[in-house]
UniProtKB/TrEMBL annotation:
It comes from the Eukaryota. PROSITE patterns: IDH_IMDH (PS00470). The keyword Amino-acid biosynthesis applies. It comes from Saccharomycodes ludwigii. This is homoisocitrate dehydrogenase.
Amino acid sequence: MLSSTVRNSLKHLTKTASYSTTGSKTLTIGLIPGDGIGKEVIPAGKKILEKISESTNLNFKFIDLEAGWATFQKTGEALPDETIDILKSQCQGALFGAVQSPTVKVAGYSSPIVALRKKLGLYANVRPVKSVAGTGDRPVDMVIVRENTEDLYIKEERTFTDPKTGLRVSEAIKRISEEATRNIATIALQIALNRYAIKGKSTLTVTHKSNVLSQSDGLFREVCKEVYQSKPEYAKIGYNEQIVDSMVYRMFREPECFDVIVAPNLYGDILSDGAAALVGSLGVVPSANVGKDFVVGEPCHGSAPDIAGRGISNPVATIRSTALMLEFLGHPDAANKIQKAVDANAVENTIKTPDLGGKSTTEEVTNDIISKL
């Protein structure tokens, strides 16, 4: 899925990996289960990495790390400094499970995954949404590239009393910067170039709401166009724009029309979660949080407290996210083996969790995919 340009921009990640005398490479991966079903699916990702090491020159070390609502309740910190320090100093990548955030304001608490993305400079969230040939699903093959550091997710809000009415008013700042937009447009176009090399065609769709938000979304739209026009090799990529509300409509009515979609943080979040319905479940859609010097694989689903502890959560999104992490770390062959094993499980369509209409457990699905490696 990635272009060599994207992989080369991250090649220094693997320089810190250790090598044996036989040429095998050891990567240190941080494991952050978080809350709810994160504690059930992250072990599946670990098992997949342990298995893939048997047929590649990759070896893995794992460091268990803490973050999440349960961590906050225990320590008063949702994302302990120790977790960040270890990720920066010892790990080449990480797997993050899920976060169970309270629905009401809790003093001192903020989402650890949002903070993690900021502290590690993970400016892009890359979410492939693809149906599997042979399963009877509609043909879907798109990549949603979501800006990961700003927009409304900077969490600069205030609530005050309107002196005229005496009633409360809340405001939130939406921040769009040229720097962040250039970064996200560049990686989206690099992914589109790679897809062009594979398929012979590719299109970038810039999603915005500049007809209403003329300055913030207007800047996002303008900068994306500037980046597209900045290099002659981008000319082979089709370019179009889509207002976010019509984008949602068209994505569900004619998903085959879309290839690479780039969007500000909030729209990208909504689009990528909604697109999961096109391929069966949030439980099968992966993502990679990508920065200039780190990668975190993260399934798109939440903590699912209603099924946590029952052993029926779908591990596929985590397993695919594990493959994505490896791909961004420069190991596409290992990543491709994992993706093919997941595809084989989907085509057989017999061992699957309840969200896909099956009766299998998390462990049974994981073991079936491992058997196909």
